Automatic annotation (TrEMBL), chain A:
All residue ranges annotated as the ABC transporter domain in the record: 12-240
Descriptive protein name: Amino acid/amide ABC transporter ATP-binding protein 2, HAAT family
GO-annotated molecular function: ATP binding; ATP hydrolysis activity; branched-chain amino acid transmembrane transporter activity
Classification via PANTHER family: HIGH-AFFINITY BRANCHED-CHAIN AMINO ACID TRANSPORT ATP-BINDING PROTEIN LIVF (PTHR43820:SF4)
Origin species: Pseudomonas borbori
From TrEMBL, chain B:
Main location: membrane
Keywords linked to the UniProt accession: Amino-acid transport, Cell membrane, Membrane, Transmembrane, Transmembrane helix, Transport
Name of the protein in its database record: Amino acid/amide ABC transporter membrane protein 1, HAAT family
Membrane spanning residue stretches: 12-37, 49-66, 72-92, 104-129, 149-168, 189-220, 232-258, 270-289
GO terms for cellular component: plasma membrane
Any single GO BP term: amino acid transport
GO molecular function: transmembrane transporter activity
Keyword match Secreted: no
Membrane association type: Multi-pass membrane protein
UniProt KW Cell membrane keyword: yes
Subcellular compartments: Cell inner membrane
Length: 240, 295
């Protein structure tokens, strides 16, 4: 099983992925590859198809064609609830904290998908605020705490491929800093992370590679080392 | 004889007890409707037919197979629950995500077909179910006579209602149900088999209705339309309590039974309309219902 642990192991391979919401054709042939332990970002403007790419991987959009291989399994034909069981944790853009559940119930909600997840104690150690508020209703938390909760929730499940959608959106700089620290810790644990991010300054120092998206296509793949030489392209596509 | 506002106390308590029993049935039935509406977003018009099927299962089981009351109390809900799961898998699933109206029309149509077939088979006059031996008789409480069976109905309904509430509000399975009610898509993305959860929920709701049907068999006439008559009031109870609210359904069910009982004592002419009057007032003051969270 050496291939499972080698850095070249393909955790996620998406090939020629097209996705549709009803009549609208959103993704036009996405190809991307994420190896074990990598942190990869999807950069792009609003509406460029980054969130849809994550949702398509989770089988949460309408129709899809092409191929999505997760941990060696083709997932295009399988039911949505079986995809997380391949070791995928999804943190949605709207955070998806359940109002009818308290913080601890929210944390315990997603079932374990594999062994090696963080225990409740470890999670509370990483996010002390959540421990203090564990019996509060989930949606009574501040935006930052809700984001922590949405992240913490998938760390318990043992998922080793995390799909994180806009986790810094609308949060105070001190919370964004905290999230960066968390991501570094998770990366050091060997987790594979796909990050959809608007905040380029947040993503740039963390990521191994970036995929630049526009109009439902990947227009460029940029390694961490090439960032400075591709500044002009980034300016043009992101408007930063 | 002791009087209160010109009414003999024994009459008052007698009507309150009858009201409490009706309330127990309202609570059981509206609870099932509330659970089903919460997760499936379907207004289950077949609920009355499922209640009637429970009562008929008890009668037919006794007459043809010699199944006694206590066995029927377990078996009839299982049978009707299984039938409910088949209906969900085969029919309701196909219209999931469509307008509420489709689910309403489909379940209403099913109820008409089932009730019509039973009228054809058994007539409209109704069958009777013998009181189980162990629950015959009653107690003289001094101020009134309490028939054992009626006390049993109230206790059994309350126990089942509270156990259901506990299961939904305090257990892991219940947290899946509550979360699934809010955001089924995300639940799938966590690896929870939401289609299965939906099937089980509909089955459980139908089973609750059948349980109420078996409880009703010895005291009400078992007729094909027994559920249809009751269901209208039960819908009013669900609306008053707040669509999809579990505790709301239980508390409102009991309260509406009692209010009906009181009305029978003080102003009998209004007894059949008082629940709807309450519904109108509640909708004017709190459109989401007494226990409803959002509009």
């Amino acid at each position: 099983m050496t291939s499972l642990h080698s850095p070249d192991y393909e955790q996620l391979r998406v090939s020629d992925l097209h996705a549709f919401y009803g009549e609208s054709h959103i993704l036009h042939g996405i190809d991307l590859l994420v190896r074990r332990g990598e942190l990869v970002t999807l950069l792009g403007r609003n509406g460029s198809g980054r969130s849809t790419t994550l949702r398509a991987i989770m089988n949460m959009v309408g129709r899809r064609t092409g191929s999505i291989v997760i941990n060696g399994n083709e997932t295009l034909g399988i039911a949505a609830h079986l995809i997380p069981r391949l070791g995928v944790g999804f943190c949605p853009e709207e955070r998806g904290i359940f109002a009818s559940l308290n913080v601890e119930e929210n944390l315990l909600l997603p079932p374990m998908v594999r062994s090696g997840g963080m225990s409740l104690d470890e999670i509370y150690e990483m996010f002390p605020n959540l421990y203090e508020r564990r019996f509060s209703q989930g949606t009574r938390l501040s935006g930052g705490e809700q984001q922590m909760l949405a992240m913490a929730r998938i760390l318990r499940t043992g998922a080793n491929l995390l799909l994180l959608d806009e986790i810094t959106e609308g949060l105070a700089p001190v919370i964004v800093q905290k999230l960066a620290e968390v991501l570094i810790k998770l990366k050091n644990k060997g987790l594979t992370i796909v990050l959809v991010e608007q905040n380029f300054r947040f993503a740039a120092p963390l990521a191994d590679r970036h995929y630049l998206m526009d109009h439902g296509q990947i227009v460029e793949e940029i390694g961490a080392a090439e960032l400075s030489s591709k500044q002009e392209l980034l300016h043009r596509c992101l408007g930063v | 004889m002791t009087m209160l506002f010109g009414i003999p106390l024994s009459v008052l308590f007698g009507q309150l007890l009858l009201g409490l029993i009706n309330g127990a049935f309202y609570a059981l039935l509206s609870l099932g409707l509330a659970i089903i509406f919460g997760l499936l977003r379907i207004i289950n018009f077949a609920h009355g037919a499922q209640y009637m099927l429970g009562a008929f299962a008890a009668v037919l089981g006794l007459n043809y197979l010699g199944v006694n009351y206590w066995v029927a109390l377990v078996l009839a809900p299982l049978l009707v629950g299984a039938l409910g799961m088949l209906i969900e898998r085969g029919l309701l699933r196909r219209i999931a995500g469509e307008d509420h109206l489709y689910g309403l029309l489909l379940t209403f149509g099913l109820a008409l077909i089932v009730e019509g077939s039973f009228v054809k088979l058994f007539g409209v006059s109704g069958l009777s179910y013998p009181m189980p031996e162990q629950l015959k008789g009653g107690y003289n409480l001094g101020f009134m006579f309490l028939p054992t069976y009626r006390a049993w109905v109230v206790v059994a309904a309350l126990v089942v209602c509270l156990a259901t509430w506990f299961m939904i509000e305090r257990t892991r399975l219940g947290s899946y149900l509550r979360a699934g009610t809010e955001n089924p898509r995300l639940m799938q993305a966590f690896g929870i088999n939401v289609p299965l959860l939906i099937t089980l929920t509909y089955g459980y709701g139908a089973a609750l209705a059948a349980f109420a049907g078996v409880l009703a068999a010895p005291i009400y006439s078992v007729t094909p339309t027994m559920g249809a008559n009751l269901l209208i009031v039960v819908f009013a109870v669900v609306v008053i309590g707040g669509m999809g609210s579990i505790m709301g359904a239980i508390v409102t069910g009991l309260a509406m039974g009692l209010i009906e009982g009181l009305t029978k004592v003080f102003y009998p002419e209004a007894a059949n309309t008082v629940v709807f009057l309450v519904m109108v007032i509640v909708l004017l003051v709190r459109p989401a219902g007494l226990f409803g969270k959002e509009a």
